[in-house]
Write a structure and sequence with these properties.
The complex is a heterodimer of chains A (about 80) and B (about 325). Chain A is an all-alpha fold. Chain A starts with a helix and ends in an 11-residue tail after the last helix. Chain A is built from 3 helices and no strands. Chain A has one domain (about 1-70). The longest helix of chain A is centred in the middle third of the chain and has 21 residues, at about 25-45. Chain B is mostly helical and about 325 residues long. In chain B, strand 3 (about 170-175) and strand 4 (about 180-185) form a beta hairpin. Classes of the chains: A mainly alpha (about 80), B mainly alpha (about 325). At the A-B interface, helix 2 and helix 3 of A face helix 9, helix 10, helix 11 and helix 12 of B.
Chain lengths: ~80, ~325
């Protein structure tokens, strides 16, 4: 079990690294989907309750993702209004 | 009696001749001031050979200045003598429906621009080509535009002058957004087949004062107030048409209006501030609707539009409809 959570946490830190290198909205969307999937997986794995450090790591990655989304060029809404 | 008349006539003609001579002398005097100045030292040359050279040197220095002064005096009124080619042109912000393969200048426009001086003519044609290329006849006025239309060799002041001349001729509309930012609208005759009308630009005569600058941090507190508004105007989100409203012409034009208002706000606040507002919007949407919304493109666009409507004080659909009557 310890190894499993370590693997999951490693995937989470991989996402952290890739967030730093992310340069486009498309890449960001892929990372966000990956994060959502991983979060679901971790939550399913720790059904009894998320350990505090895992919870903190998840929130931290989420904050990185949100920040990165804000740093990317604003979404073009022109197609949206057609 | 005949003798007196003759004497009177002779006096009159002499007085007339005298006056004419005076007038002629006065006319000649300002034309040839240098000749007089040059002659004077020559006259004194024989008596004072050492001193005489100095005035000659002084004259050489003074003369060009005088010439420049005269030129300046002549040039200044020329700049002011710009009259609009046409006063009744309607400035419409348009976007072209599709990219054009060729640059066609309508006859009506060609007739107008052929009256422009060479520099202004060239600048107008370059702007016209640029408008076709970027599929819209408006944008920022500044260094980037100068570079993009191939007028790199001009200094900023020369380019500014060209712009203000074109505006004075009535073929360009310049709008001062902030101290450093200007936008332009190029006059193009509206053609329904190839263009979409976005808005009519107002001529700046009535409002010489600068538009109010919106500080960047302002939208953030408004965003906090948004949840209250949101429940009231959830139906007004342009991206989320109310049932049965999809084909409503009114709603379509509201969407265009919102899109344009966002574009205008973007220009008003500047790129950097707009980026900050976008960042705030992302954080707000994450907090309010959860992270999953951020990766759902449609929903995110919907909420982002709603955020912009609130942040930039864009009227909601209902309010806009009321204002339209």
């Amino acid at each position: 079990m310890l190894n499993d959570i370590k693997i999951l946490m490693k995937s989470l830190s991989d996402i952290d690294v890739r967030i730093m290198l992310c340069k486009s909205a498309f890449e960001w969307e892929l990372l966000a989907k990956k994060y959502n999937a991983l979060r679901d997986e971790i939550e399913a794995f720790c059904a009894s309750g998320l350990p505090e450090d895992v919870q903190t790591a998840l929130e931290k990655t989420r904050a990185y993702l949100v920040e990165k989304k804000g740093e990317l060029p604003p979404l073009d809404l022109s197609d949206f209004f057609k | 009696m005949g003798l007196i008349k003759n004497i009177g006539n002779a006096v009159k003609s002499e007085v007339r001749d005298y006056l004419l001579k005076i007038v002629e002398a006065e006319k000649e005097a300002p034309k040839n001031p240098e000749a007089e100045n040059v002659q004077k030292p020559a006259e004194t040359k024989a008596g004072q050979p050492k001193v005489e050279e100095r005035p000659a040197v002084k004259e050489e220095k003074v003369q060009p200045e005088r010439v420049e002064e005269v030129e300046e005096v002549r040039e200044k009124p020329r700049k002011k003598e710009i009259y609009p080619i046409s006063n009744d042109l309607e400035f419409v912000r348009v976007s072209y429906k599709k990219g054009q393969d060729s640059v066609i200048i309508p006859k009506e426009l060609a007739e107008l621009i052929k009256m422009l001086p060479l520099d202004e003519y060239a600048c107008f044609v370059k702007l016209y080509c640029f408008a076709l290329e970027q599929k819209k006849n408006y944008g920022y006025w500044g260094g980037t535009l100068k570079r993009r239309i191939g007028l790199d060799q001009l200094t900023t002041s020369e380019f500014e002058e060209l712009g203000s001349n074109l505006a004075a001729y009535g073929l360009l509309l310049l709008e001062q957004l902030t101290e450093n930012q200007k936008t332009f609208v190029l006059y193009v005759p509206f053609d329904e087949d190839t263009m979409v009308k976005l808005s009519t630009a107002k001529k700046p005569e009535k409002k010489p004062e600068k538009p109010v600058k919106k500080p960047a941090p302002k939208p953030a507190p408004k965003a906090k107030a948004e949840p209250e508004e949101e429940t009231q105007c959830a139906e007004d989100i342009p991206g989320k048409p109310v049932e049965g409203m999809e084909n409503d012409e009114m709603y379509k034009s509201y969407k265009t209006f919102v899109s344009l208002e966002i574009d205008k706000a973007k220009m008003r606040v500047g790129r950097a501030n707009f980026d900050k507002i976008y960042m705030e919007a992302v954080k707000y949407i994450d907090k309010k609707y959860g992270f999953k919304v951020l990766s759902d493109s449609d929903k995110f666009k919907e909420y982002l539009t709603n955020y912009y409507i609130s942040a930039f004080d864009i009227p909601t659909f209902e309010n806009w409809k009321k204002s339209k009557g």
